[in-house]
Ribonuclease J 1 (Marinomonas gallaica), 450 residues
Amino acid sequence: MDLLMPTRSDLWFLPLGGTGEIGMNLNLYGHDGQWLMVDCGVSFNEPIDENSARTYELVCADPDFIVQQRHRLAGIVITHAHEDHVGALPFLWRRFQVPVYTTPFTAEILRRKLAQVGLLGEVEIHELPMGSQFSVGVFNLQWITLTHSIPEPSGLMIETPAGNVFHTGDWKIDHSPVIGEKFSPAVLSTLRKRDVKAMVCDSTNALKKGHSVSEYDCYKALLDVIKDEQGRVVVGCFSSNIARLVSLGYVAKETGRYLALLGRSLQNMVSAARVAGYWPDDLPVIDPSHLGYLPADEVLAVATGSQGEPRAMLNRLARDDCFDLSLQKGDVVLFSAMIIPGNEDAIERLVTSFKAQGVRTIQGHDTVLPIHVSGHPYEDELASMYDWVRPEVAIPTHGEPEHMAANARIAKAAHVPRQLTGLNGDLFTLAPEIGVRKNAIKAKRIAIAR
């Protein structure tokens, strides 16, 4: 393998995962003989070879390029606690054996993951508050507080003598995010004074016009839907969306229901949110074993499995195989989550199973109310971000090719001088020359065995 090594005059961006796809983010920045890794995530139920139909439960970017020069890896920075940004780290860390830098909530999630694989206490974790400035090897870094669908989403300002990069991570503009700090344009506007050579930017919703909907508006929509229900209500949503879970806690309180969590990942996330101070003290959560003793109109349960996963709690409820709760005619299952492409058939089978029991289902397309909102920026938000930061180069990432092409068009319309698009394995050179070296390394995937 060609072991590329950046010199003192070089500033490089090399994505191994997450560019040309949504998921399994693994990014490398190179300068002065060192590499910085930003995020280390997984994807679910995907093949490792585009020519193969066989899928694997957990898939991540092949890290062999950086493992071969581990002595040059200065450290690993994790921008937030979503699985596609942190999920591979517990399984790959032994190959790197370098310190990890992240924010307090993400550190809490990471410690729990490390404990599951017997690594708790072995990994050097630097827990850095929001907004912190810190150094990792030759890289001077700063958290830039953003908003997203999980606590403590942080962009990363990367400064080197060869140039500066703003790595957005996942974000949206949300002025009413339910938990955490509100989005602050003022902070972003200060970056234009810091000579940002390139902005590496989330492209997930670049094809969507307008502006994403606030998490608070989702809370109001959930309240509107649930307040008139007479039967049991079960909500399927992503366990990492703590703001959505807090919203459901308030919905339960305002509608005279009791909130319970069905599924270990939900219970673990809420436990971590309590430890990190993100779960309100006035929102009780009952033990799921108590649900069977409650009148139907006092039950509000949140369940795992919104993507139709066969072993998750929504599927168990559909099979009447949940020990703590049985659904009956007149009850409703509400999907407060996006449909991840590829999961359409599994979700439809799940909906059909509920309907066969006389259990109603409500999905996003069944109502005009925003019962789910995205955590990623739409076109207008991307344009605003480019205007605030004013980078010399836009590098779209975190998207399939059509999403990244749309992001590049938005950047061009926002008067960003250069736009560079590429795929995993392409080397983006930002100094001393600006360009893209296609297929600089062979980007591959590997399956992770739990």
